[in-house]
Amino acid sequence: MALLNPQVTNLIIILGMMQVSKKIPFEDPLVLNGVRALYVASNILIAAIYGYILLQVNKKKDLTTLKYVEPAPMGSSEEGKLVTTTIQAYDAQQIKAAFRSQLMGIAMMGFMHLYMKYTNPLVIQSIIPFKSAIEANLVQIHLFGKPASGDLKRPFKQPAGFMSGLQGATTQSDKKAVEAAERAGRGGVKDE
Questions:
Q1: What is the pLDDT of residues 88-144, one digit of tens each?
Q2: Are 137 and 91 in contact (CB under 8 A)?
Q3: Backbone phi, then psi, for 86, in 5-degree steps?
Q4: Where are the beta strands (DSSP E) in 16-130?
Q5: How far apart are CA 34 and CA 89, in angstroms?
Q6: Does the reported pTM lie above 0.85?
Q7: Which residue, 53, 89, 58, 62, is CA-closest to 189?
Q8: CA-to-CA distance for 79 and 76, rounded, in angstroms?
Q9: Distance, CA of 111 to CA of 158 (rounded, Å)
Q10: How far apart, in whole angstroms, are the C-alpha atoms of residue 144 and residue 147?
Q11: C-alpha 157, offset from chain centre
Q12: Rounded to whole angstroms, what are the CA distances from 150 to 65, 146, 156?
């Protein structure tokens, strides 16, 4: 059980590491290369965790059917779409999305560090993505062996973020919403 919301702990870590990174002598090439090595090692560890999770998902081959109603895109007037998939396919899709997100973070950090010559974010980005990877639902289920119930029940609830209030709709997996979507004929194509 977490004592603090992950967003609050991220904010605390960011504010703390901003103060710490002001004291780090990045002008020293040895220190700078050490921080770069920490960043690279952090990303390799995250990629290894995601790779292991994907191997576990494929090894378990959980073909239990999972039905949920995906919310309509923001600003769209259409109804949500019914998605029928398996737990294996859903987990594989989620871990691949997490890996893509990690690659986007690396690309942004590469641009900021190599092109714009910012060094301070290297320290923060060595910690926050690793913390987020450890807190991810699939890591909790497949690496730490927690049961897929409560907050870890599929489909996963999207964490409340900066723009979540504007989007409004969330993924629905309750029987009533799924049956309504089936009757309306919205989607229902099985994702493989």
A1: 999 999 999 999 999 999 999 999 999 998 888 899 999 999 999 999 999 999 999
A2: no
A3: -110, 160
A4: 65-70, 81-86
A5: 39
A6: no
A7: 89
A8: 8
A9: 28
A10: 9
A11: 11
A12: 18, 11, 10
Cα gap 164→151, rounded to integer Å: 17
Q: Please say if the pLDDT value at position 159 is more than 90.
A: no
Longest Cα–Cα distance of the chain, Å, equals 66
Q: Which amino acid type is present at position 51?
A: G
Strand partners, 83: 68
Condensed to tens digits (0 to 9), the pLDDT of residues 132-155 reads: 999 999 999 999 999 988 888 888
The residue type of 146 is K
pLDDT of residue 40: 96
What separation, in Å, do the N-terminal and C-terminal C-alpha atoms of the chain show? 34
Tell which residue, 177, 173, 178, 175, has the closest CA to residue 188.
178
User: Encoding tokens for residue 152?
Assistant: 């870890």
Show the tokens assigned to 115: 């092109």
Of the candidates 83, 65, 70, the one whose C-alpha atom is nearest the C-alpha of residue 172 is 70
Residues 6+ apart with CB under 8 A from 54: 92, 95, 96
Cα distance between residue 50 and residue 92, in whole Å? 10
